[in-house]
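Section 5.1 Outputs to date
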Amino acid sequence: MAPRLGEILYWMATWIAAIVALLGIAALARGGDRQGWISVASFLVTAGTIWLIGRALLIFSRDKTSQRSRNSPKPAAKVKCHDLVGSWESDMDDEQTRQRIGRARIEFYSDKMLGYVTFDGDKKQILKLTYDVHDDFIVTDQPSQPKVQKTRFELLGGKLKLFYGTQGPVCFKKVG
């Protein structure tokens, strides 16, 4: 709403300024009486005020739009394998993640291999998988027991959300 209103006010002020310029020329042609110049000055103040409000709304909406795009998940279609490369640990501050998978780590490598590490007390289990990114899915396969699995995901800065089934996401934080 604000961008549209800002544009309307901006262009309204531009037209008012054009009309004021014509009135100024007419006042000057009539000999420049005091009443004519007061009218021109009041129109200029009005046009300037409307123009400033319009510009402020445009700038404000541009800032909000850019802030919103910085905080929005990266469209998965634009995510490439290299965006995932690195170490990701389960977000233990997220209740759902803590309950569903506990402490875990994913290591994405540039050669499209990944290690999925789960921790259970002193024990750790490591799964070695291959991965690729297709649209908004991470596609994994375990070479020792082939079975392709597709997991929908979102990537937002240093946060990776994996959607398993209908239960909602589990979250990982980038750590390296």
